[in-house]
Each structure stands twice: as C-alpha cells, then as structure tokens.
Design goal:
By secondary structure, this protein is an alpha+beta fold. It contains 7 helices and 5 strands; from the N terminus they run αβββαααβααβα. The protein is globular, with a radius of gyration of 16 Å.
Length: about 190
Amino acid sequence: MAKAKVQKEAAQHAMETPIGVLHIVATPKGVAQLDFVSTRRGRAKAAKTTSTHAAKQARAHIAKAIRQIREYFSGRRTDFDLPLDLHGTPNQQMVWQGLLEIPFGKTLSYGELAGRIGSPRAARAVGTACGSNPVPVIVPCHRVIGSSGGLHGYGGGLWRKKLLLELEGVLPRGSQAGKQRALPFAS
C-alpha cells in the first residue's frame, strides 16, 4: 500500500545529456532513480510517463536534479547536492555512501572501496552493489575501476563510463579505455 502512495507522489522527467537520455524519478523525499534510456522506444515511454500531477516537492527535486546534471556535463559542477531517496539493503547503502565519498576526478578499485567501507574481502559484493546503484552519475559508481586500472562493469555501458571519466579528467579524451563512441560533451 505504501508503494502505491510513493508512485502516486513521484515525479518523472526524461532529459537529453551527452551520454544519452536520462530518465529521472523523484519522490517528495528526493531523487530515487536515474535510468539510461537506450532506445527510441524507451525515450517515448519515458516522455509519456512524465507526471503532471506529481507532488510539488517531487517536482522540485526533479528541477534541481536537471539543473545540477546540466551543470555537471557543462563542467561547472563537480559534485551533486541533491536529497536522495534510495532504497537498498544495508550493504548496498554502505557501498553507495562510499561511492559518494569518491571525489570528482578520482577513482578507486572495487577492492579499495571494499576496504574503505570496512569489508576488505568484499570486492565482488561492492561490484554487485555498484551494479544496483539506482542513481548512477549522481552516486558516482563510474569512479570505481578494476584493480588493474581497467574499466569494468557499468550498467549504462562501458562507453558511458569512459565518457564520464573523460569528463572528470581521469582519462584523456579519446582514450582507448572501454568502448569508443564519439559523443561531444555539452558546453
């Protein structure tokens, strides 16, 4: 029953970014979901489901998220200041909090992040929690790399991870890491 109430109060919006369309969902508590929309069919669905009757606070969180995501892609923002409404297991929550502590322009390996959150032998569990991150980009799971320095696993595709790391100056533009895909960043 509570789930139906949250869905009724949620606001949604699809926005174009240099890494494709992002579908943002917010509740009155904060941003709850950010999905990569990879197909034209997905874009149409995201656009059609944008709520016009959502709670005022949820819409305010969406507006703030849109502004900050645009600032991030234009190079004017290095971290996000958004209320989040994330639901996950205690271990997922711990990993997501650890992700928020990785500074812009820096990376950690899965093992290093596991050590930082007090579970040094849990690199695979960290990878699983990164894969279930409901708000990629905002909670920067793209900043977690393999112990060899290679790009591994990203729900939005390695090409997006590569472009995000290029934007943050971790990788040189046009590097060979991850799959290549020409996509200019917003200015």
